[in-house]
Design goal:
Layout (H helix, E strand, L loop, with lengths): L1 E4 L2 H37 L5 H23 L8 H33 L4 H27 L1 E8 L2 E8 L3 H33 L5 H41 L3 H38 L25
Parallel strand pairs: 1-2
Antiparallel strand pairs: 2-3
Helix pairs in contact: 1-2, 1-7, 2-3, 2-7, 3-4, 3-5, 3-7, 4-5, 5-6, 6-7
């Protein structure tokens, strides 16, 4: 379906969307520039593992994701209904896949914090699979009810999307399920951290300090990630509410802010869940003259360093 309009309000809203998308992409690229040195040292030069692959996929899928977002609302790019549909499927599919990858990273962190407990691992995997399978099915149903439209404004082309059935309701269910998973992960992290801090009172000052610092790194990165997820969820639910009640310029501003925070959560703070732990472990090894064994308390993946320690 093609919509032709010369309404200037449409152009203002589309230009605003384009600016927000460019800002989101700039944040992702800027963070990559800031951390490229750490990435080369702690990721590329270390022994490869599942966490290495997850880090690289999430990190380097960010810029193409931002480009696709920008092309959707860039008037200079002519897109047909088919092109708009492909971009919409790509964006939403990427959201689901990256969310699943971040969930795997979170499971690995929690598995390590709980002393590699098999019961905890089974529990986390069951919840993770239930949430992600449900989200995938709901998202597939919702995508069928999204109609891509070619919007022509004064001779320029851009994408517009119409919603059929209860797409907003389905999207809300997806975010509610993801929120349940994130809240559960945060509560489990905080609980085990508090438990360890209490147990450390019975240990010596040197060992206790090392373990305490390790858990502080894990909790700090987790809390920052969770805070970004809360912001994304609030903007998402606010945008869906405005779409149902009174769509307009406020909804465009919320959608733009949503894209920025979503990019920060997935492509900035997501990779830092791995990078922060590796950085801490590298500093710990570099500042120690003795063999360090942190297998039971640090992110469970093997990192090749100039010592007998494995992390």
């Amino acid at each position: 379906m093609t919509i032709v309009s010369n309404d200037p309000s449409w152009r203002a809203m589309i230009n605003s969307n384009s600016y927000w998308m460019v800002a989101a992409g700039a944040v992702v690229v800027y963070d990559w520039v800031l951390t490229i040195g750490q990435e080369i040292e702690l990721i590329w030069r270390q022994r490869w593992s599942l966490m290495t692959v997850l880090y690289l996929v999430i990190r380097y899928i960010g810029p193409p994701f931002s480009v696709v977002h920008i092309l959707q609302y860039m008037p200079a790019v002519s897109l047909t209904d088919v092109g708009c549909n492909i971009m919409n499927y790509t964006i939403n599919g990427t959201n689901v896949v990256v969310a699943a990858m971040l969930g795997v990273i979170m499971i690995a962190r929690l598995h390590a914090m709980y002393q590699r407990s098999k019961n905890m691992l089974i529990f986390l995997v069951i919840i993770f699979l239930a949430v992600n399978i449900a989200c995938g099915v709901i998202m597939a149903i919702a995508l069928k009810d999204i109609v891509a439209e070619e919007l022509i404004l004064s001779g320029t082309y851009t994408c517009n999307y119409g919603y059929e059935a209860d797409v907003q309701l389905l999207a809300s269910i997806v975010w509610i399920l993801n929120t349940v998973w994130e809240v559960l992960a945060l509560c489990l992290s905080v609980w085990i951290a508090v438990k360890h801090f209490r147990d450390l009172r019975r240990l010596g000052p040197s060992t206790g300090l090392t373990i305490r610092d390790c858990f502080r790194v894990l909790i700090k990165s987790h809390v920052l990630y969770f805070a970004s997820f809360v912001c994304v969820s609030c903007f998402e639910l606010g945008y869906l509410y405005l779409q149902l009640s009174r769509p307009g310029s406020i909804g465009v501003l919320i959608l733009g802010a949503l894209q920025v925070f979503l990019s920060v959560q997935m492509f900035v703070l997501g990779p830092r869940l791995i990078l922060s732990v590796r950085e801490y472990h590298a500093k710990l090894v570099a500042g120690s003259d003795a063999e360090i064994s942190m297998t039971s308390i640090v992110f469970q993946e093997r990192v090749h360093v100039s010592t007998n320690s494995t992390v």
